[in-house]
Amino acid sequence: MTFYFLDTSDTPIDLADYNLKIVKHTGLGEVDPVIVKSSFANVDGSYYEGQYVSERTFTFKLVSRTDDPDEYHTARKNFGNLVKRYRQSEDLPLKVRHVADGTATGTIELSAYFAGGMGLDEPKGYKEFIIAAFESVKPWWEDATEGTTNLNASILTTFNNIAKRTGKAGWDYLDGGVNDTVDYITHSSDGSTILAGGRYTTAGTASTTARRVAGFSNSAWSEVGGGVDDNVYEIKFKPGTNQLWLCGACGTADPSSSAIEINSVAYYDFDTTAWGTISHSGTVGFPSSVLQSFDWDSDENVIFGGDVTIGDFHNAVVYDVNGGTLTYLTEGKAGDIGDGTAVYGLDNHVYKVKRIDNDDYTPGVARTYVTGAFDSWEDQAGTSSTANYTSFFIWRDYGHTFARGFKNSAGVATCTIYAIEEHPNGDVWFGGNQDNEATGTVGIKDLYRVAAFDGTRFQNMNVGDTDEAVYDIVYDPYSKEMIALGTFTEAGDDTNIQKVARHNGSVWLPESLDFSGVTGRSASTYGNEVVYGFSGTINAYISESTINYTGSAPGYPRIELSGPGTVNYIYNHTTDELIQFNNLVLYDEELLTIDLDESAKRVTSSFRSGNMERFLVDNGDIDTFHLTNGDNVIICNMGTAISTKRFVFKNRYTSIDDIY
Question: How far is residue 234's CA from residue 353's CA, in Å, rounded to a whole number?
């Protein structure tokens, strides 16, 4: 390839007439090198004192190939005259043309700097002298002509009760999902398998039998241990094992074969490929009960919660794994719940049991939260003691139990808490249907559906409207966001955020897939993926295209879309960069242009005035969205009527290669 200086009419200049040649700026590297201004360099790349060095992105040098001082001075004078011609032409910048295989592929504008400071009387022994060093106006070479890639047509993709997102918007329908609600999701320890518990009986496009607990791995579903005979509401791996525990309304495991009695709780051991049960005083599980949730304490005892009545225990009970016995929730130490009386139960259902290992309230100390719809605790005789609050209390694993809760302004406990999650900052987030004030510590009125507890007081996170609920809250370490799922139809006063919402630390944001027609139930994260369980069906029109970009510098395309139709997002799966729109509907023949050029990023419409960036979701990557060298997988979610979907771009290059 060859590079030419251009004159003011863009005609190549024969540098041989000036006794000059373009060469690489040796010894400086080709990605983010240092540019030398007003300095000389030895042929070995060393520099003299007094040089001025500036960190820029791209450079080459113009040298005189002579040992003769007179020829060198002549070359330098000729170059000075060359630069002067540009300066006298309205300060036009120097231009260099990039030519490959005889075809002019692009130009780059340069600013020239004279060399100086070296003893010119004794250049003997040197074969090269820098006449000038250059910095580019733009840090890349650019093709002379634009290339256009038309994106593939959108195809209807149906998500049935489950969906996986990889990165910011790489959605997978998991082979057609399952045929009914997914209530709970977890991952295997290595992330290779997604486990789902719920109310379904078949999975996958082939409608494979999968009774309420199944795993998805290697693009296929498989039933776990022959499944169970009724609904599963929660599944978890016991820490440090391959035992998948579950609870729900189920009575038997592997109902079509061995029909193992489990009574609402059991575990499947993937190492032994066998079911295990719990028993106490000759009783298996919890007959005639529905378990909603469970977790382990620091002694590996299991705390169960739900609609439970067994012996003296109601709605919450502890299973002592060592003794194989049931025991009370707390012994009721002085100053704790019960205040000297053991707490055997709660007056209403428990919906969530969650162990938190380190929070702001007791830093460094693990404790288990129990939440639900209760507002009173009960002693062994079943006598209730109204606590004037509802929905959760804390079992601290070093032996004490304290209560905190919610009530409305009239002092009536009316809410239910379904979800608990710990934020990395130590706050504990609660989700439910509360429209109340927190009590028991420092109360704050108006806690709408999600409240964050920092160990001292509650903060309203403002999700949903009256009679709406949050059923799960999960922290996503990849995006560093808290995710809420439920029945809500707004978050942070944004009515476009429905059923699933992401909190980035300051505001609620919508998911890139439209969950408005379903009910969010559960989520699980692993690495850069989030898997959502829900009730219902989502239809999305998604296209996937591959753009091969040959440039070595980032390419900033112009994206053109024409209506009619809805534009949801454009996602480069390769770079994990997302441009997401919030409820943008294009009119018939309206052209939307997303110009990502670094000098003027803007979104414009052929019909509407002003910058269309007002339709962008706040955390979009429009400032960085680019093409990278090689194949770029572009995923779009937009209506099938969008007639034009194309990327227009020039390949750009960061370095000069093969210069003699």
Answer: 10
* Distance set, CA 123 to CA 66, 72, 118 (Å): 9, 9, 9
Q: State the residue range of the domain holding 83.
A: 2-142
How does pLDDT run across 400-433, given as a tens digit for each residue? 555 555 554 455 556 788 999 999 888 889 888 8
**pLDDT greater than 60 at residue 631:** yes
Q: Report the alpha-carbon distance of residue 494 to residue 517 in Å, rounded.
A: 16
Cα diameter, the chain: 111
Domains identified in the chain, total number: 2
> Facing residues of 541 across strands?
156
Alpha-carbon span 88 to 8, nearest angstrom: 10
Based on its alpha-carbon atoms, the radius of gyration of the chain, rounded to whole angstroms, reads 34
Ramachandran sector of residue 417 (left: φ over 0; alpha: ψ -120 to 50; beta: rest):
beta
Contact 502, 480 (CB under 8 A): no
Provide the CATH number for the domain around residue 93.
Answer: 2.40.30
Give Cα 175 to chain centroid, integer Å: 22
Domain assignment of residue 580, yes or no:
yes
- DSSP one-letter string for 183-229: EEEEE-TTSS-EEEEES-SEETTTTEE--SEEEEETTEEEESTT-BS
pLDDT digits (tens, 9 = 90+) for 190-223: 999 999 999 999 999 999 999 999 999 999 999 9
| pTM for this predicted structure | 0.81
Smallest CA-to-CA distance from 285 within 332, 322, 319 is with 319
Inside any domain, residue 249? no
For residues 524 and 186, give the distance between their C-alpha atoms in angstroms, rounded to a whole number.
5
Ranges of H-type helices in 54-158: 69-87
Backbone angles phi, psi at 398, to 5 degrees: -95, 15
Token pair in block for residue 209: 């039998």
Nearest CA-CA partner of 162 in 140, 182, 189, 136: 182
CATH number of the CATH domain containing 628: 2.60.120.860
Report phi then psi at 76, rounded to 5: -65, -40
End-to-end Cα, the chain, rounded Å: 9
Distance from C-alpha of 246 to C-alpha of 199, rounded to nearest angstrom: 13
What CA–CA distance (Å, rounded) separates 523 from 531? 5
3-state helix, strand, coil in the chain (%, to 5): 5, 50, 45
Tokens read off for 42: 């030895």
Residue range 117-143: mean pLDDT, rounded: 42
